Amino acid sequence: MVRVAEEWFAVCGGCEVSILDIGEPLLDLLPSLEFVHMPVLMDHKLFGQTGEKKHMEIPEADVGIVTGSIRNQENKELAEEMRRKCKIIISLGSCANFGGIPALGNMYNNGDIFDIAYRKTASTEAGDNPSQGLPALTDRVYSVNEVIKVDVSIPGCPPTPEWIAGALTALLQGKSFSLPERSVCDDCPTVREKKAKVAIRRPLQAPEFTPGRYDNMRCMNEQGILCLGPATRTGCGGSEKTPRCIKAYMPCRGCFGPIRAGANPMVDMMGALSSVGLDPKQIEDRMATFNRFIGAGRLRPMPTR
Amino acid sequence: MKEIVIQPVSRIEGGAKITIQLDDSGNVADTQVNVLELRGFERFCIGRPVEEMPRITTRICGVCPWSHHLASAKACDAVFGVTPPPAGRKLRELCNSIAYMEEHILHFYFLGGGDFVMGPDAAYEVRNVFGIAQKLPDVARNVVKVRHMCAHMLEIIAGKSIHPAAAVPGGFSKPMTEAERQKLIPMGKEALELAKFSIDYAKKNIFPAYIDAVKTVGVIKTGFLGTVRSDGAMDLYDGKLRMMDPDGKYEDFEAKDYLDYITEHVEPWSFVKFPYNKKWGGFSMDPDNPKGIYRVNTLARMNVADKISTPLAQAELEEFRANFGRPAQATLLFHWARLIEILYNAEKTLELLNDPEITSPNTRVAATPRAARGVGCTEAPRGTLIHDYTTDEKGLVTAANLIVATCQNNAPINMSVKQAAKLLIKDGKYDQGILNTVEMTIRAYDPCLSCASHDLNGQLACKVDIVGADGQLIETLTNQ
Predict the structure, then answer these.
(1) Superfamily (CATH) of domain A2-172
(2) Global confidence as pTM
(3) Of A182, B38, B178, B440, which has the highest C-beta tally within 10 A?
(4) Closest chain B residue by Cα to residue A134
């Protein structure tokens, strides 16, 4: 029996739904797992069931699964408590591993962000920034591994159910779990001829394809539709391999993060596009596009103009 | 003066705590539901190409990504001035209905169900889906299977069920093949069977046991907002908005005119704002004398709609209305209304899958960037959802405003909690079961605080500027 604790920080909940999307294999795994803390599904309280404890407390567990990025002091304290109580920490999803979409916020100063939310949107009656009884916010969005040591990283937005099941099964068997260090292109069935047939354009019209098929569709980038496949880790397609967005005839936006630790997707993409004869400078909003899911360690506020 | 803190509020989406203040005699003086999460979409959407919004705003919520995806795609349609071809629209509606089933099943059985199947004062270790799986293994196995099947249906139609990419400005990127349609129809039928089973099971085995609680716990009187077609039938994808006052009188308006009705108020103790109807004379969350308060989500839709367009769900609506009137106000009825909606969406799914036009290869039209403003609105499972974007001539976002379902229920959630706490906590006596019953009033709303807390990336909770006698700033102290 493996004791499991799960916590979420600045999240959308998609990683939790991905855990449920393991489906029937999850039912087979369940008898070997004992969940001791998981706010989305269970009522265990951080300060005791009737709020009697002074400090937040998570029960001891063999495995701690954490999702979401670190956005406030309470996220940080919870991450530290998870680290203290769990033997193995799994950071699940691209927010936990790279900041995810919320880390796009790192391109702006906090004061500016506050101003928009509480004083400047079209429907808001201007008010002071809320603060009573609320956790202090961190100066920027952090990935979990910037705050605590992580043992197993499973990226993806959302991560693949197969990978989550694979990691849990490996842990149950005392084996190690590792991810492929290949790109989305390595598993993409589209046809590459190493030369773009048109200049880069916005994805505002359909690419050419035959409905129901992927193996005769020309590579998105070669059709001039920016696709981040060359700089993104493969895996989203699970056992069927075909990348999930390609299945919708849509280009990759990089939600699984860099191909390997230390890779630089911005540089990799510039190279990939140039090599098929495209001009990356024509891409609107390059900084946010190339760092769409990985802004925690990479995006910084832009200088005010 | 004593304070009870329930943290985290569990079996909901996202992070919150309940603070209950007791007076010296141990009775409830005040309560607050404090939403602790914050991210900041309205700021960081600015500068992005607007066609990326349907792929960025899905990350507001991984439980209802389809709602954000579709509201966003509709807002993009309006910005670009394009109308999706019929098959594009129908594929969007189909995904909406399947996503609804998946989410409502998730809520009823995985999130809310523990309180009803195991009982509100069962031990917390078993008051959850794991407890249900022990007590009702066959039901649990079937529920897990059908919920997962709905996710798989979305993958077949759109490539991806969570954080989809297929709804694009001007339509839908992936046409449906006949082979896919044939694969989906039996799945739709299986989902319909679970929908029928669920409402029958609940009416026989669950609601009768809790009817006293339904009529007393968390009950407040508010207005309601939802979407209806031109014939007054409930619609979950498109239509006009209907705002009903607490006595049942209503007014219809176009979603793009939402600013004439909805204003958001800020309170110092929650990061989530408090939308209210500005035509109703101010804002007050006093349960005895509320002002401006309306609710969204399943119960609101049952109340505002004149009818439902599918036969089985219409029969259920008639029974519901005969039992509880229009507008029905009891908070725990959100669950009952949710089961009627699972049925409607199962029927709607089969209706769309049997429509020959659904397999047309013509699913999208091209778009060209321009400076414009576009409002997209849809009914998310948790209530009316509005995305409002303004762009420059390159089609880059210059302003974004999001009115999210759970924000609109923020004030009513606070009022229901206050009502329940005052009803149940007397003379300083409370236990886990009582505190959980207070939480149940929150769960009825199926709140998504991830959604609700989209709107702020946040800043320092405390900042002190030390200024010298000459007025010059010497130092800034923060609590980071």
Answers:
(1) NADH:ubiquinone oxidoreductase-like, 20kDa subunit (3.40.50.700)
(2) 0.95
(3) B38
(4) B36
